[in-house]
Amino acid sequence: MNHWQRQWLSDRLHKKQQNPPAVESFVPVVSIKPKRPSQPNDKITANIMKTKELDPQNLGPKEDWAGNNIALECPVCRKVFLVSKQLHGERHCPSCGRSRGMVTGGKESGGKASIIWDDAPAFTVGRKYSRKEISAVLGGSEVEFLPTENKRIVCGCFTLEHNPEAPDIVVPGTGKVIEREAKLFCEQDYPVPIFIKRRPNEWEYVGDYKAERSSTNTTEIAAHHKGSITPLNEVTRVIFLQRAAML
């Protein structure tokens, strides 16, 4: 060790004696991340539909085909329902709405019959979705309260300001589109996904519902107005909804 090295070491020892290191107390620091609110999947896509064609020569135990009418079992909820070419042509399962049967004619005249369905629901109860995400899966408008696609209601998007008793009861107002959609919804015999607005661009999925009945009676409308921001004299009907069984 030369002279400069000895001098450097002596200076280091002298500084340590003058300024002993402070004793640090250990305080654990816990980093708590705020809980992320329930959110929909980052990307939502429509599920792949399954199809089954009825074989007229080998009908299943819960299938029938007489003339232009068929009876078949919904693969999702296991309920048997009827489809008529004259009355429906194509009909959704009236119990769950997640399958639809189709018939083009009689089995003796070369008609075709089939059912298509979706095993997995596209939405999760309690989760919130944007109108854009809802429309991407179901189709229909991003602003209407009963969006339509191919002349059928695909879902309901209700605000509690307009419909205080939603999702069980809704009170549509006036307007060509509003009244047409409300009438169409009441005519459908199968449930559709229903969403309630919780905050801007957040619509909570609360389950699938269908219109059980509706009334244009002014007394009944008044009884269910419940302070809606839609003026009472502009409410055109009251619709009572029924929730589909959870599968």
Largest sheet: 6 strands, mixed
CATH superfamily of the largest domain: SRA-YDG
Residue runs with pLDDT of under 50 for 5 or more positions: 19-46
**CATH T-level fold name of the largest domain:** PUA domain-like
Proportion in helices: 10-25%
Radius of gyration: 31 Å
- The tally of structural domains comes to 2
Number of helices: 4
- Report the structural category: alpha+beta
CATH architecture label name of the largest domain: Roll
Instruction: Give the strand content.
Output: 25-35%
Descriptive overview:
The radius of gyration is 31 Å and the shape is elongated. It starts with a helix and ends with a strand. It has 2 domains: 50-117, no CATH class; 128-243, Roll (PUA domain-like), CATH 2.30.280.10. With 247 residues, the chain is of the alpha+beta class. 25% of the residues are buried. It has helices at 3-18, 131-138, 176-187, 218-223; strands spanning 50-53, 64-66, 69-73, 80-84, 90-92, 99-103, 113-117, 128-129, 148-149, 152-153, 156-158, 169-170, 192-199, 202-215, 238-243. It contains 4 helices and 15 strands.
Short description:
The protein is of the alpha+beta class and 247 residues long.
Task: Quickly list its features.
15 strands, four-stranded antiparallel β-sheet, alpha+beta, single chain, 4 helices, PUA domain-like
Give the SSE layout.
Elements: H1 3-18, E1 50-53, E2 64-66, E3 69-73, E4 80-84, E5 90-92, E6 99-103, E7 113-117, E8 128-129, H2 131-138, E9 148-149, E10 152-153, E11 156-158, E12 169-170, H3 176-187, E13 192-199, E14 202-215, H4 218-223, E15 238-243
Parallel strand pairs: 11-13
Antiparallel strand pairs: 1-7, 2-3, 3-4, 5-6, 6-7, 8-14, 9-10, 12-15, 13-14, 14-15
